[in-house]
Amino acid sequence: MRGRLQERELVGVDAAALARDERHDAPRRPLHRDRQHELRAIALARHRLAQRRLLDARGIEIHQRVFAGARDVADARVRDVARP
Description:
Layout: H1 2-11, H2 35-58, H3 61-82
């Protein structure tokens, strides 16, 4: 019984009495706020680099085929809409 009573007393300890390391509050703001902008640029550069490798490995021809296929689908939709 005494052990449980001590646990309850510890739970009720005021947060101000605890040291900084023992509190469970939100983290401080980062020192460099612009860091997210830098990381975003790095992430986009990696994505673009992966796209470039894909195009270089297979050639630009695949890119042209995709656009040609998209044009054909768009033309077919226009024809379907134009029919009464």
